[in-house]
């Protein structure tokens, strides 16, 4: 029994490491929080956290492993993820080179931002592979039901707290002032990152 709990801690450690490694999800929260404020960034973070929880559920149930077995399913997910990242890159570049607008003037509803975060997380095939590895390394295939439940709940809470922390940190007044001064360059940087991530995802073989 103690081995199961030790494995669960290993799984949580992998998740925390992922939270400290900026990817499309974290960059989206940073950009949204600086431009539109803490509430908008938090809505995006909640969508990402729900996506993380759903990936955890799918992995525990074996669906993500089944998806990984069929190359066609992963290819479809890769195309969808790359297309969505490319759309985010387009939005960032359009913001960088378009006319200057007052911050928050075009802010989306919290619901729309929630679904944006959810899509960012769910259209990333590497998330499916990461969860398969996390479960295999951390709790294995013969874990007790309550351990699997703890994994799902714990992963959701870690994702929620971690991503909300990014939203809070990057919506502070000094950071917002910096964003206002460097908005065009930051939007270009975000666009370049999303474009690069889309290219890497579309051309990856895994």
From TrEMBL:
Q: Which GO terms describe its molecular function?
A: amino acid transmembrane transporter activity
**Mind telling me what this protein is named?**
Lysine transporter LysE
Which Gene Ontology terms of cellular component type are present?
Answer: plasma membrane
Spell out the InterPro entries in the cross-references: LeuE-type
User: Entry's PANTHER family?
Assistant: ARGININE EXPORTER PROTEIN ARGO (PTHR30086), TRANSPORT PROTEIN (PTHR30086:SF21)
UniProt keyword annotations, A-Z? Cell membrane, Membrane, Transmembrane, Transmembrane helix
Mode of membrane association: Multi-pass membrane protein
Spell out the subcellular localization from the entry.
Answer: Cell membrane
* Pfam families tied to this protein: LysE
Q: What is its main location?
A: membrane
What stretches pass through the bilayer?
Answer: 6-30, 42-64, 70-90, 118-139, 145-165, 185-203
């Amino acid at each position: 029994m103690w081995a199961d709990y030790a494995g669960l801690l290993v799984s949580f450690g992998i998740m925390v490491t992922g939270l400290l490694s900026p990817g499309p999800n974290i960059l989206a929260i940073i950009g949204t929080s600086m431009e539109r404020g803490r509430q908008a960034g938090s809505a995006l973070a909640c969508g990402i956290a729900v996506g993380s929880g759903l990936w955890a559920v799918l992995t525990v149930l074996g669906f993500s492993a089944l998806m990984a077995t069929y190359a066609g399913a992963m290819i479809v997910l890769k195309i969808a993820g790359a297309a969505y990242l490319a759309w985010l890159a387009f939005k960032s570049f359009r913001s960088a080179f378009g006319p200057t607008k007052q911050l928050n003037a075009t802010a989306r509803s919290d619901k729309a931002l929630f679904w944006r975060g959810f899509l960012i997380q769910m259209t990333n095939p590497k998330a499916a592979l990461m969860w398969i590895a996390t479960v295999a390394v951390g709790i294995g295939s013969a874990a007790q039901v309550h351990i699997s439940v703890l994994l799902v709940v714990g992963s959701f809470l870690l994702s929620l707290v971690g991503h909300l922390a990014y939203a809070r940190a990057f919506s502070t007044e000094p950071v917002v002032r910096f964003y206002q001064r460097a908005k065009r360059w930051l939007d270009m940087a975000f666009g370049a990152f999303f474009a690069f991530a889309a290219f890497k995802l579309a051309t990856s073989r895994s």
